[in-house]
Write a structure and sequence with these properties.
Number of helices: 4
Distance between the termini: 15 Å
Radius of gyration: 17 Å
Order of helices and strands: HHHEEEEEEH
Largest sheet: 6 strands, antiparallel
Shape: globular
Helix content: 25-40%
Strand order of the largest sheet: 5-4-3-2-1-6
Oligomer: single chain
Length: 179
C-alpha cells in the first residue's frame, strides 16, 4: 500500500506543479508540466482534472493577478482501499480532498482508482464527491475506463486510513465504512 500512497503523492505534486505553471506566461512549460501530470493517468483521463493544454497566453492582467500568490497545497489523502478485481488484479481507490486544501477544513473532493496497466501504475477512473440533488453527498460523475467502477469491485481486502474528512458528515460516514 505504501507504493500506492507514494504514487498518489507524486501525482498530487505533479498536479500542483502544473496548476502553478498555468498562471505563468510560459505555454511550453505549462503544457510540459500538464503532460507530466497526465502521464500518471490512462489516456481517457488526460486533461480531466481541470486543466487542458493551452495554445495562447492569457492577458497580462491574468498573470499579474497570480504573480505574488502563495504556493498551492497538494490535495490530502484520506483513505486508500485495496480490492482484487478479476480483470485488473489489484485495484486501489484513493479518497482525496479537493484542490488546494487549506488544512482548516477536511472534506472529500474526489476519489481515484489506481491499478497496473502494462506494468505501470495508472489512474484509471475518478469520481467527484458531491450531490446534484442536494440530499446526500456521494461519489458521482465518473470519468475514465468504462469497465471498472464501484459496482464492479467487491469487498476491499485492505484499507488504510490516514486522516478524517471530519468537516463533512457524509464524507465521515463514508470514511468509516469498510469500502
Amino acid at each position: 500500500m505504501e507504493a500506492i500512497k507514494n504514487f498518489i503523492i507524486q501525482f498530487l505534486q505533479a498536479e500542483v506543479i502544473a496548476t502553478e505553471a498555468s498562471v505563468k506566461p510560459d505555454l511550453e512549460d505549462y503544457n510540459n508540466k500538464l503532460e507530466m501530470m497526465n502521464s500518471f493517468c490512462v489516456s481517457e483521463l488526460h486533461n480531466k482534472f481541470g486543466m487542458i493544454p493551452l495554445t495562447d497566453l492569457e492577458s497580462d492582467e491574468f498573470y499579474e493577478r497570480y504573480k505574488n500568490k502563495k504556493s498551492r497545497n497538494p490535495r490530502l489523502i484520506y483513505k486508500i482501499s485495496q480490492y482484487e478485481d478479476e480483470n485488473y488484479g489489484d485495484v486501489y481507490i484513493a479518497y482525496i480532498s479537493g484542490k488546494n486544501p487549506n488544512e482548516m477544513f477536511f472534506l472529500y473532493g474526489e476519489c481515484v482508482f489506481i491499478t497496473t496497466i502494462n506494468r505501470e501504475l495508472k489512474i484509471v477512473k475518478n469520481y467527484t464527491f458531491g450531490d446534484d440533488m442536494l440530499l446526500k453527498k456521494k461519489f458521482e460523475t465518473p470519468q475514465g475506463l468504462p469497465d471498472i467502477s464501484f459496482e464492479t469491485l467487491k469487498k476491499p481486502v485492505a484499507i488504510e486510513r490516514y486522516q478524517k474528512p471530519e468537516d463533512d458528515d457524509d464524507a465521515m460516514e463514508h470514511y468509516e465504512m469498510d469500502i
